[in-house]
Each structure stands twice: as C-alpha cells, then as structure tokens.
Give the backbone structure.
Amino acid sequence: MDRRLALKQLALFTGGLMAFPSCDFSRENVLAAYNKLQVTDVHRNILAKVVETILPGGEIVGAKELNMQDFVLVMANDCLGEEDQSRFTKGLKNFDAYIKRKSGSAFETMNQEAAESSFMNIVDSEDKSGDIEELKYFLNTTKRFTLQGYLSSEYFMTEVMPYNMIPGGFQGEKMIDPTEKINING
C-alpha cells in the first residue's frame, strides 16, 4: 500500500469528520442566509402576507405558494446596496406596527380586501415623512422583486405562459382571440 495515499485519505477523512458537526441541515436556520438584512421568522411571515397581497392565489398559483417571500429576501440581501438594504429592512420592521396603528389589527390577520386597501393606502399616500417613505420603498421593492420572481418562476414559464423557443412561424394576419394564451417570450 502507498503510504502517501493512505495519509492523504486519512487527512481527508479526519477533516470531513471535523466539519460534519458544524453542518446543520435543519430548517430553523433558513434566515441565517439573509445575514445582511437580519430578518426574523416573524418578518418573513409578514413578507409572505405582503407577497400574497400582491399576487393572490386563486385560479393560478399565487406568490405565497411559490415562496416568493424567500426570493424577495434573497434579492434584497444580495442585490441591493447597503443604504437600500437598510431602507428595506426598516420598512419591513415598521410595516406591521404602522398597520396596527392605522387599522387596529395586524396585517397577517387581515382579509384580502383589507390587506389590499392598506397596501394601496401606503403606496398612494402623499405624505413625505420618513416612516411613510421607508414603507413605500419597502412595498415598491417587494412588488418589483415579487413580479420578477413570479414571471421567471418555473411554474409561470411552464404552466401559465409556456416558453416556445421557436414560435409557430410567421403569420401575417391572424384574428386575435381574447381567450387564447399569448406567448410573452416571443
């Protein structure tokens, strides 16, 4: 037996044994991935209700069923600058408290109509105070990332608007049927 090969394998095996206890495969630490945002599970649940308000489920699968809240958090964590991350996080953390002050109930417990109304009241508000501006930034950023994630999701690309790499060819004149699914990808 080759001594060098045996020592190399022993070193790899020992390193693997030392690294194994630090590996945590539980679902509890999912928020550790968003280290720059410092969000908790409560904030993630509020964000899930916000994305459900933006794209509710029904005839087609909604944003919450596709876990768009995780997509929004990953995009905010990885793609926004430090200042924008700070504004997003402040808006997320102050959102539920603001809704409780204005409506008297938590955002997560609202029905769809009340949630939509609260959402639109903040987005359409003419108030220029710091709190409202942070909430507007948070909601607009969440809306942008939710739509981006939903329109590029596997579900949307295969079930709602299937991608057709080579469309059916040139059709100079065609009657438009309002019930026909259009292909937005070409």
